[in-house]
Amino acid sequence: MRLSASTLVTTALFAATAALFTGCKDKNQNGSVPKPSTPRAAVAEVNRMLSEAEFAYQMKEYARAESLMNQAISIDKNNPALYMRLAQVCVLQNNPTAAKAAVEKAYGPFADAIKEDEKAKGSVLESLMVAADFMFQQKQYGLTENIITQAIDWDKENPTLYMRLAAVHIAQNNKPAAKLAYEKAHKYFQAAAKKSPKDPAIVVDLITVNILLRQPAEAQKVLDQAVKNFPKQEEFKAMQKENYISEMMKDAEVQALAI
């Protein structure tokens, strides 16, 4: 059976968060995994319920999946993976209010994990973005914005978060907010480029955000400088030769996201 895109995203969320917070790993050598919040026997029971909920989810038995998630939460109330999972099930039952409540209950344990060990932040943000992608696919733009905004609160200088937020605002037809998000992304991409001047990926990001801000001259300036700074990067030479900036400014899909 071929899984749908939404099922794959949901499975990715489970994989990204369950191992962190249900004790599937006893310890992480780099110290980034928080301690299990429940005894080992209870962890096993939670994992069993998660497996049953996963099967119910794939069979589109969402009410049963919700019941199993709530049972799991009654055992492990400080497990953010369970709340995020529950939120997805609530969305698929057309209950965005319950989904929002579930998501917001996950924030406390996520914050505790970061507070306990700053190295956990990367895994937490990854989990939040997987959840945000799911909510975006379901056209739950308000909830997607909620999740990304929380992620920004924990990582205020992360330009990719602002790029995601801009996309949500465009979906909400809120162009002023989208422009503000792009401008913040631009600011932090510039800072990242100064901090890591030898990273060509950041240069590509900076070109992209300039295009999305309808600043082709600035984008071209960044590209021309990249050709000089990265003489061995054939990608930049090809972009320059093929008038990449001009072509992107005419691309319908790109312009749908531009401000």
Topology:
Elements: H1 5-21, H2 40-58, H3 62-75, H4 80-92, H5 96-116, H6 121-137, H7 141-154, H8 159-171, H9 175-195, H10 200-212, H11 216-229, H12 234-241, H13 244-250, H14 252-257
Helix pairs in contact: 1-4, 1-6, 2-3, 3-4, 4-5, 5-7, 6-7, 7-8, 8-9, 9-10, 10-11, 11-12
Q: What kind of oligomer do you see?
A: single chain
User: How many discrete domains?
Assistant: 2
Low-confidence stretches: 1-36
Number of helices: 14
Fraction of helical residues: over 70%
Assign the structural class, choosing from mainly alpha, mainly beta, alpha/beta, alpha+beta, or little secondary structure.
Answer: mainly alpha
In the CATH hierarchy, what is the architecture of the largest domain at level 2? Alpha Horseshoe
Can you tell me the overall shape? elongated
What number is the mean pLDDT?
87
Order of helices and strands: HHHHHHHHHHHHHH
CATH class division of the largest domain: Mainly Alpha
Write down the Rg: 21 Å
**Biggest sheet, in brief?**
none
- Compute the separation of the termini in Å: 41 Å
Strand content: under 5%
CATH topology-level name of the largest domain? Serine Threonine Protein Phosphatase 5, Tetratricopeptide repeat
